[in-house]
Amino acid sequence: MKTPLRNVFGLLLWIPILILICAPVYAQWVKVPTASIPRGPDGKPNLSAPAPRLPDGHPDLSGIWEPNGNKYVLDIAAELKPGDVPFQPWAKALVDQRADGSHSGEDPIANCLPQGVPRINAAPPPWKVIQKSDVIVILYESANTWRQIFLDGRELGNDFPPTFLGYSTGRWDGDTLVVATSGFNGKSWLDQAGKPISDAAHVMERFRRKDFGHMDIQITIDDPKAYTKPWTVIQPVHLLTNTDVMENACENNLDLQHLGGRFGR
Questions:
Q1: H or E segment at 170?
Q2: pTM metric for this prediction
Q3: Which of 99, 173, 203, 258 is deepest in the core (most CB within 10 A)?
């Protein structure tokens, strides 16, 4: 089995444009079972077939997913009108300060740190969903990052270490997986443009698998420290049927010395 040519990130850099590293074609595995993939008369995967379901009746979100392009990792608000992001004054000033790329070395991913939620869903490397009734695990190829979404009713307590990806719990609303995430450390950027997210943020994601090969993620950011009111974006992703996630370690970061900002100098 060969993976398609795809963009993989070693780093997300403003230099001033996104630098993409194009991966070669690899034959990761052979003799891979494909019986679960619906196919059309031509033998090709039928990505418009109905979404699969688990025995409990819920949609099965399992698979290898990839964003539809890079624009949301560049600008999470790419589909919004200018002025639709309700910045607090300090947050708007910070984004304006970062706009010329002189602070690109302060981007967490440029320092081999996790991209955080929800940005990591928009990063070009694919991610793998492993679904069980009580937990969903997402394996992100980007910087070998993983995430757990607990469906067993647990709640986040008060004694937790803040993290880049926060802590996620989920529930089903019909055929939509609703994921609530909090417990952030406030060090992430929402996108490469440098939109901030604070430690007070609550992120709500609604994963809806529309058919076999397509899924929408509706993201609502409620962060009273950085934004005056909650705001929402929708990011589409698509299924990859002939590949798997690969190791993608962040190492030998020789570009960092050329980037501006506190960490890049």
A1: strand 167-173
A2: 0.86
A3: 203
